[in-house]
Amino acid sequence: MGLLDEPVERGSTYTHSMAYRVRTRGTILEALELMFQGRSRRDLRRLVSDERVVVEGSVVTDPRAIVEAGDTVECVRFGRRIKLHPRVHLLFEDEHLLAVEKGPGILTSGGVRGKEPTVVDVLEHYLRKRGLRRRVFPCHRLDRDVSGVCLLAKDPRIARRVRDDPRRFLEDRIYHALVEGSPRKPEGTIRSYLKDDDTTMVVREAAPGEGKLCVTHYRVLRPGADWSALEVRLETGRKNQIRAHLASIGHPVAGDTKYGARKHPAGRVALHAARLTVVHPVSGHRIELCSPVPEAIH
């Protein structure tokens, strides 16, 4: 079953556009084959017939149409999640990047060989099945028990470029969290220095000279006496930042016993990466990726 034949699951669709600059004269179909390596011609023709392909600002409906070197081809895609693993669904792919919707209970990378697969393992297996022996490298990480949108690259230099300058390339990182209690202010900013505590294996607040400055913005969506639903936006992106910051104001993420939570109303760490706006590190185009918030976190 091809990419465009995948059934649409409720709440799983998203829209984004991606661009490609044509290197040599040829048909639009040939250009699309370079954009979406490994996809069948049948799927690519459907992109054209569905009027999702734009060349230099004009919609193209004929797959035999000629494009010239230097032309910009844009593909407006109505994405559909492709299930690669019970906890990993593919949201986006081009010749440089992969984006997935990660479920709780799976590592982004690392782990022990021969044990449970990681997101990286799943994606490398997916590429091998298509005859592409490529490695995959995280552009950022989601903790094992955190779900949502996660971005990875097919080239270590691209992944490193994103990791080294997340404010530039990961433009908008929105999370949803269920926390214990209710913050006094309906919205606020948490700003502090954080560092790893090797003794307790958690991230803790530190003096300015000892840790890294971290900034987290939050907004209360639904307050409650026992639990409150928050929207959280990362300005910086350090390890465990949201979990450590919310715990520091007395409202740990529900289920996050590592940071002081007492109960598990969602049966998991109730934190979900709901939206990620990526500035493509090669083309410069913006890609907005969304993942519906699980009912347990609502």
Features:
disordered N terminus, alpha+beta, Structural Genomics Hypothetical 15.5 Kd Protein In mrcA-pckA Intergenic Region, Chain A, elongated, twelve-stranded mixed beta sheet, Pseudouridine synthase, 298 residues, 6 helices, 18 strands, 37% strand
Notes on the protein architecture:
The chain is α+β, with helices and mostly antiparallel strands. Among the domains are: 14-79, RNA-binding S4 domain (Structural Genomics Hypothetical 15.5 Kd Protein In mrcA-pckA Intergenic Region, Chain A); 173-273, Pseudouridine synthase. The chain contains 6 helices and 18 strands. Strands 7, 8, 9, 10, 11, 12, 13, 14, 15, 16, 17 and 18 form a 12-stranded mixed sheet that branches. It has a 4-stranded antiparallel sheet with strand order 1-6-3-4, with helices on one face. A hairpin with a 6-residue loop joins strand 17 (271-279) and strand 18. The longest helix has 11 residues, at 119-129.
